[in-house]
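Hello,

I think I submitted the 5-O-phosphono-beta-D-ribofuranosylamine job twice by accident. Can you confirm which output corresponds to this input? Input:
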Amino acid sequence: MKTAILISGRGSNMRALVDAAREPDFPASIELVLSNRADAAGLTYAADAGIATAVLPHRDYESREAFEAALDTTLREAGIELICLAGFMRLLSDEFVEGWRNRVINIHPSLLPAFRGLRTHERALATGVRVHGATVHYVRAEMDDGPIIVQGAVPVLADDTSESLAVRVLAAEHRIYPLALSWVAGRKARVVAEKVILEGLPT
Ligand code: GRF
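Support: Only one job matched these inputs. Its output is below.
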């Protein structure tokens, strides 16, 4: 399935997806890496890997609608069927999300529905949870909401800082995002009544 990855920065999850998609029989091919920031470090990795890249600086557009129209055109012209958000720091409107319904997935660094939004590791430590992690989910207009495809849990250790916890969660992210992409692109994941059914996989 022709897949685009949208990033805004470092792009370590994008890298994990690109690397996974190199495996023979992986059901997604990464056709495009797109950033809303020209200085996103991940763009260099993608270009070096021979993947088409695009930059759409959101500030160049007079409105969210204009930005999203350009984004939509770029994706459709590239024949994209599936979008992976990987540290893409722009909220997508209801209209955009509906236009790509069940064809946009995101990774969030918490066990949703806990800790939507930013600074998740700091908030997990402040709350005193013993288990933290990451979630890959289908995107809905509500931020960090939508049917959950897979989650990766990590322990919170007594001496954790938000940095040490972030490292452990990021390692889980790099494991679960390729798995989620393989399920979605391989049509093993289906949304029924806003829950994900995984076919032929242990539940
Ligand atoms: C990750 O923690 C991801 O879960 C969140 O933003 C961060 C992006 O990191 N949405 P990277 O750009 O993939 O390295």
